[in-house]
Write a structure and sequence with these properties.
Elements (H helix, E strand, L loop, with lengths): L1 H5 L12 E5 L9 E4 L13
Antiparallel strand pairs: 1-2
GO molecular function: ATP binding; transmembrane receptor protein tyrosine kinase activity
Protein name: Protein kinase domain-containing protein
Organism: Rotaria magnacalcarata
């Protein structure tokens, strides 16, 4: 959240359920890679059914 605030980014629903962890390093947190999502904006689709 501090990183986002430093860049003036506002996420309307920042919660653990909206964070995808792609890369996690115990010893070097600078190497962590996460992506923020908002699954509340998803819609049902019949494209892949």
């Amino acid at each position: 959240m501090v990183y986002l605030a430093n860049y003036g980014i506002v996420h309307g629903d920042l919660a653990c359920r909206n964070v995808l962890v792609f890369r996690f390093h115990n010893s070097n947190p600078q190497e962590n890679l996460v992506k923020l999502t908002d699954f509340g904006l998803t819609r049902a689709s019949t494209l892949y059914s």
